[in-house]
Amino acid sequence: MRHNRSLQKRLGVGLTLGATLLWLLGVAASGLVAQHEMNEVFDSALEETAQRILPLAVTDILNRETATGSRTAPALKEHDEYLTYVVRDRQGALLLQSHDADPDVFAALPREGFTDTPTHRIYGASAVSDTIYIEVAEPLAHRREAALEAGLALLAPLFILIPVSLFGIWWVLRLSLRPVVEFQQSIESRGASDLSPVNQDGLPEEFEPTAVAVNRLLERLNRALDAERSFTANSAHELRTPLATALAKVQRLKTQLEDQHLRKNVVEIEEALRSLSTLSGKLLELAKAEGGGALSQSPHNLVPILAMIARDFESRTPDRIRLTLPEGEVQSLLDPDVFAILIRNLIENALKHGDKQQPVDVSLTGAGILRVCNGGDIVPPDQLALLRNRFSRYDTKAAGSGLGLAIADAIASGSGMTLHLRSPASGRADGFEAEVNVTHAGGNSGPCT
Ligand SMILES: Nc1ncnc2c1ncn2[C@@H]1O[C@H](COP(=O)(O)OP(=O)(O)OP(=O)(O)O)[C@@H](O)[C@H]1O
Ligand SMILES: [Mg+2]
């Protein structure tokens, strides 16, 4: 499975991890250098101390009146010793030691120069023709503590560096990717019928070819759709006059014919011409619905339009329509002619495909929710999803071409509304319901249900 992760997130985490890793490497390298330098300084201090103490110790030892004089140098003040020392003769006999010195730390025989024990670093020097030796010891723990503190001091900035770098990278990326995000949103938020070029101003160089390609594609699509729409509209329009003429001639012929068999044939031709004429009318409506222009410049009150259309149907199919209108006005940007096409198709469907024994509920609420509801068999969900397609019909004996819902859907999506189709109708166990919020006209279309 492919995961589409955010570029911003990926770069933010990647760059921060990279910067942290580099910093850690830098800390390790500078820690090693610092430790080496510190060791040199500590060694030099150790050597210096030994060289300083040795003459004093020699004088002290030589001036002793008895061989049993104090062998421990007195401490002037109580304190902890970092450096301890012992002064011994060549055989290792102790002559003098600092007050905290532990003779076990030192080797049995004195040695000159630097030596390491598991716990101490020791420096030895001799005087009086190698008869008196001094050895100064420094605990290694002291050095380790100094190295650790230096390391921690170098690591400490990381705690600030990580959040600051995460935030900084995130901020810079957000700033640089803003035109890309705007570009993506402008494609995402446009209605299905909006094929105008996408604004590519301010896009980073790397994304410009994509924008150019998208705009070129939109232009080609627009041209293809325009050609298709104008072909549909023109052919439907061109068919109208000859169809009307043919129908009139057939009707005249019907009245002149005495032979019942011939008359029956002519009636069939008349029916065929009539359905052809209806089809060309529906194709014209579809071309208009898909051609844009579903919105008008200023809002209109749709209540009287709905009342008029419902009355029109009522006169043709008495007592079948139950109309519920709001008390006030319902203003919508939907073009009144387009609204008339929409409502005609929905009511016509309800009357035609619904149970003839049950009424058709047509309602418009003050909030702009238009609902056309009828009784009848349930349309299964998989079929329901297909009904908006052109020429799609489901299990009906009624005449028709399968264009009504395609027209209604094109009007809804072209004007930023959503046409909801439900079966069974809401609040009942059977039937069919079509719902659309006419006050959403002019906004962006939402998902279809
Ligand atoms: N109110 C409804 N109740 C039950 N079924 C419906 C209803 N409206 C539509 N349908 C089903 O959806 C199908 C498609 O409807 P649509 O309006 O697109 O085409 P049509 O009514 O068959 O033909 P046309 O509208 O072109 O004359 C219908 O054939 C019918 O099966
Ligand atoms: Mg229909």
Automatic annotation (TrEMBL):
Subcellular location: Membrane
Any GO MF annotation of the entry: phosphorelay sensor kinase activity
Record flagged with keyword NAD: no
Entry keywords, A to Z: ATP-binding, Kinase, Membrane, Nucleotide-binding, Phosphoprotein, Transferase, Transmembrane, Transmembrane helix, Two-component regulatory system
Coiled coil, from the record: none
Mitochondrion found in the keyword field: no
Residue stretches making up the HAMP domain: 174-226
Pfam family, one: HisKA
Superkingdom as given in the UniProt entry: Bacteria
Membrane-topology descriptor: Multi-pass membrane protein
A GO CC term assigned to this protein in UniProt: plasma membrane
Listed transmembrane segments: 152-173
Protein EC: 2.7.13.3
PANTHER family for this protein: SENSOR HISTIDINE KINASE YKOH, SENSOR PROTEIN QSEC
Protein name as it appears in the record: histidine kinase
Native source species: Marinobacter lutaoensis
Organism classification: Bacteria, Pseudomonadati, Pseudomonadota, Gammaproteobacteria, Pseudomonadales
